[in-house]
Structures are given as structure tokens and as C-alpha cells.
From TrEMBL:
The keyword Ribonucleoprotein does not apply. It comes from Euphydryas editha (Edith's checkerspot). Substrate binds at residue 118. InterPro entries: AKR, AKR2E, Aldo/ket_reductase_CS, NAD(P)_OxRdtase_dom_sf, NADP_OxRdtase_dom. This is NADP-dependent oxidoreductase domain-containing protein. The active site is at residue 62. Residues 23-287 form the NADP-dependent oxidoreductase domain. Pfam families: Aldo_ket_red. CDD domains: AKR_AKR2E1-5. PANTHER family: ALDO/KETO REDUCTASE.
Amino acid sequence: MFQNASVQVPKLKLNDGREMPALALGTWLGFNYEVEPSNEVEQAVRWALDAGYTHIDTAWIYKIEDQVGRALKGVPREKVFVTSKLWNFFHARDAVVPALRESLRSLQLDYVDLYLIHTPIGQFANFSHDTTDYLETWQGMIEAKKLGLTKSIGLSNFNQTMIERILENGLEKPAALQVELNLNLQQPDLVAYCKSQNIAVMAYTPFGSLFYSKAAPDAPPPRVDDPVLVKIAEKYNKTVPQIALRYLVELGTVPLPKSLTKSRIEQNIDIFDFQLTDDEKNLLKSFDNGYSIYPSSTWDWP
């Protein structure tokens, strides 16, 4: 584990002084809770650690934190960066710390490295709307950090207006923001704002609609066999998904590719030995059309 890894992942400096690896293994399998979970995420995390991943991204709602915890057994704690997220059911200020403690029990950890508010809109367990102001939730996050249960705190699916409101109220600046980012949805204004505020941006769904098996019928191009992308990939002896991930890295973001396949897990981290040209980046930029795989995502919320 780690010793045999041929890839060294660089790190980003966060605004709170800590460092975050520039790529993470994503662990969300979807919301199909009718199926009894197996140990496939546990195995994926083990493969990822062997391949050189030093950052694992998970969340309470994924229902697999226990698998991540089992995979991390025996790994020196300081060697791996773990991100988890507060689900919508726990937005009350006094619910944040107990929710994080529950995640920590599942993960078998004393702390996470980064804890994010998963979305800005709270719900109750019966899915009715929880009107708790996310400023209250954020104060609960600050308390969790003070208790040492997380080293850094951040947001997920928040927009610029929401972040500005946190800062205008004199509260601690988020260390990171996690949002959907891929070739079709590059969110340049939000990324630029976060860069101006020294807030790290993490990119979920980094492959977008590249794969035919995952793409909706109305999803715009490109696909994994796009001739232009194939040509760039061949130039660097890489795959098209690797080019997509490299582009997100060069935008200064932290991609979170997920896979349960050993070879793809290994490929997804092997993106730090080449650089795209300006012309190639401009070509990749041209695929940005604002198409979201999750159109209800929260950057459009007030």
C-alpha cells in the first residue's frame, strides 16, 4: 500500500494552511438502497490505495462509509486524506456534531480531514422541507472543527451568492467547494470566484456524459470516441477519460473519479506526467455548454 504506487499525487494548499491531494477516489454508487451493499467499495478503496491515491471522498448518504473504514484499517492515518459530508437530515446546528460522530464510527476514524455540507437545503427524515438557515448549519460545522472531529470544513452544491453570504456574516471561510464539473459543465465564473477567495474546488461527475452507457439521450457531445479527443489522447499515450481528468486538474480543480474496476482506478490517477497545450485546453473549453447531469443541483437555488 503506497510503497508500490508509481504515481505521486501533488497537493493543493488550503486557505486554512492544510494540504489536500489533487485527486480523490469518489465512492458514490447511486441511491439504489434496495440492493444489499456488498464489499465492492472496500475493494475499490484498497485498489486505489495500492495505486497511489491518498484522498478518498465519501458521505453519510452513500451508505458505504463502513466499507471505506474497513479498507483504511492498517493505513497510517496521516497518509490518507478523507473527505465526508453532512446530509440534509442534520442541518440543525446541534445535529452537526452527532452526525459527524456517526460517520466517524462507521469510518473507524477519530477525525476526517475535510467535512462538507452536502447541500444547502435541509430536509427532515420524512423528506419534508427543513427551513434551517445554512448559516446555522455552518456554525455547527465550525464547532465540529473546534472539537477536532474534522481538520477542515467546506461546502458542496453551494453557489457564489451562498458563499458570499457566509463571508458577509463574518463566519469562517470554507476551505473547499465541491460541485459538478466536467467538459459539458465547466462553471468558469464559479471556479474563478473560488480561486479569487482561495477556496479549493472539487469536481464530482468529472467524466460527465463521456460514456455512452451513462449518457442521457439528450446529452450533448463529446463521447469517449470523439475523434478530436481521441487524437489528443493518442498524442500523450493516454485515454480520453484521462484527458478529461487532466483538463480539470489544469483548471486548478480536484477531480473525484469513481470506479469499481481496478484497471480504471489505476488509469484515473495516471494523469500527472503530462501537460496539455493551450490549444488543447481551448478546444476542451469549447465543450462547455452548461449541461448538467444533475439539473436540480443547487447552484441555481437562491
